[in-house]
Amino acid sequence: MKPIEKLMRTAPVIPVLVIDDIASARPIAEALVAGGLPILEVTLRTDCALEAIAEMKKVEGAIVGAGTVLNDAHLTSAMDAGSEFIVSPGLTEGLVESALKHDVPLLPGISSASDIMRGMDMGLCHFKFFPAEASGGVAALKAIAGPFKDCLFCPTGGINPQTAGNWLALDAVLCVGGSWIVPKGTRDFDQVKQLARTASAIQPN
Fold this sequence. Notes:
- This protein has helices at residues 3-8, 22-34, 49-56, 72-80, 93-102, 113-121, 137-145, 164-168, 189-200; strands at residues 13-17, 39-43, 63-67, 86-87, 106-107, 109-110, 126-129, 152-155, 176-178.
- Helices cover 40% and strands 16% of the residues.
- 46% of the residues are buried.
- Helix 2 (22-34) links the parallel strand 1 (13-17) and strand 2.
- The chain is of the alpha/beta class.
- The strands form three sheets. A four-stranded parallel beta sheet has the order 3-2-1-9. A three-stranded parallel beta sheet has the order 6-7-8. Strands 4-5 form a two-stranded parallel ribbon.
């Protein structure tokens, strides 16, 4: 099993995190891990994102990676901060080459059969389906994934607790990405832990 697949099989939901207050980074990571979601994707959308990755890695049991990685510079900075995996909204040859150079698991974004074929040409078979709901939802991924029996997916974008089970019911889906688990700007870490606990128990519908 490839390292990225092992990560994708760890929990049904990967929290997609936008951290804008570094003081909340570690408590959020502690709450998520305690709630049963150890795989944490910190998006590089805020000034403190790289520092947040470093802080979250101090939490026992947390496996922290960087999201919204667009190019080699982003990936290198994320690796310097201690990222253990990389997630991107798209797929480029340069990004794949950078991930190979750094020997880091990569989950690139796709939204079409052509994207998947380009990724397969680069030796990839694990992808983020993004933006999941805006790209046609469960029916779209079911149709797109049909010809690619060896490919596995993590849909992300617009998914919520009510719809996550529908995605997980697809044979090709190992997990989903979710931003609902950590409400923007929250300081209620007990709520985060409870939301994580509920998400970690989501079953395929």
